[in-house]
Design a protein that fits this description.
With 297 residues, the chain is an alpha+beta fold. The chain folds into two domains: 110 residues, no CATH class; 115 residues, Heat Shock Protein 90 (2-Layer Sandwich), CATH 3.30.565.10. It has six helices and nine strands; from the N terminus they run H-E-E-H-H-E-H-E-E-H-E-E-H-E-E. The strands form three sheets. The chain has a five-stranded mixed sheet with strand order 4-6-7-9-8.
Length: 297
């Protein structure tokens, strides 16, 4: 039994017990009030009959000589009818309340599972990335021990800078992901792409084929995905990047150098965000180019 199911069962039991106690008190006081009302009613009819012995009594009032009483069957049916009405509406209220609580609990559980999956995913990716980094460092250190060269030192410095930059970008993305919601709004893909490209300072040639495309999507999430994809292209491109904005998709193609060949941590986080928000992303290396295709309709 899961933790959330236990919470739901405890909530349901507490609600049932609480309303059972309320029902008992309600029915008890209704019965007391009904008996008091019947006594007052009989006194009134008794006084009426003293003055007018031919007075036509209601059907549920029985006359025995000079005494009057209420038909027990009528009183019992009235009590049962009231009890059934109370139990029906309160039972319906408990069911609706339990359903709403279950739905809210389900949403909270889903959110927690998404965060848990993301943390597992992030841990796996970072472990893999740091493992590769340490392996590369170990190899270069062994080379330095055998034959110290300036090129090896430069290579180590380059790898350290890349790793540091990639981890910083990853932490910034994680902070944004925690604030993401699923509220949708209209955005212009052409304007968003142009705005993101202004954040990159590079001497690499960027060719962009763009057209106006209006999307109904969560802006912060899509902006993070697009930033990660463009950052990956700029980071690993050898000399040029080609971006094509279509009506329902965006394609990013870049050439890559053999030294920095790879997809990068940012691309893997972007892929996770696409899965979480039901967007389609495909990528592959073809010849000397790396191609990413993001489809959002």
């Amino acid at each position: 039994m899961t933790f959330h199911l236990k919470i739901f069962l405890i909530f349901a039991i507490v609600v049932v017990l609480l309303f059972s106690a309320i029902n008992f008190l309600t029915i008890y006081f209704f019965n007391e009030e009904q008996q008091r009302h019947e006594k007052e009613l009989l006194l009134v009819y008794g006084e009426i009959l003293k003055h007018d012995k031919n007075y036509q009594l209601p059907l549920h009032i029985k006359r025995f000589g000079e005494e009057v009483s209420i038909d027990e069957k009528y009183a019992k049916e009235r009590f049962i009818k009231y009890s059934k009405t109370v139990l029906f509406w309160e039972g319906l209220f408990i069911l609706v309340l339990s359903y709403l609580f279950y739905r809210v609990l389900g949403l909270i559980s889903k959110k927690e599972m998404e965060h848990e999956d993301f943390l597992k995913f992030l841990f796996f990716i970072l472990s893999h990335k740091i493992g590769n980094f340490l392996s590369t460092m170990k190899t270069n250190i062994e080379i330095m021990r055998l034959k110290p060269e300036d090129k090896v030192i430069e290579r180590l410095q380059l790898i350290c800078n890349l790793m540091s930059d990639e981890l910083n970008k990853t932490m910034e993305t994680i902070k944004k992901v925690s604030k993401h919601s699923k509220d949708k709004q209209k955005i212009n893909l052409k304007e968003l792409t142009e705005n993101i490209l202004t954040k990159f300072q590079t001497e690499k040639k960027i060719i962009i084929s763009k057209r106006d495309a209006i999307l109904q999507i969560n802006k912060s999430t899509f902006e993070s995905i697009l930033f990660l994809l463009l950052d990956n292209a700029v980071r690993y491109a050898h000399s040029r990047i080609h971006i094509k904005v279509c009506k329902n998709a965006i394609a990013i193609r870049n050439d890559f150098s053999e030294i920095l060949k790879g997809s990068g941590l940012g691309l893997q986080i972007a892929e996770y965000l696409c899965r979480m928000h039901k967007l389609s992303i495909k990528y592959r290396a073809k010849g000397e180019f790396f191609i990413v295709f993001l489809k959002f309709k």
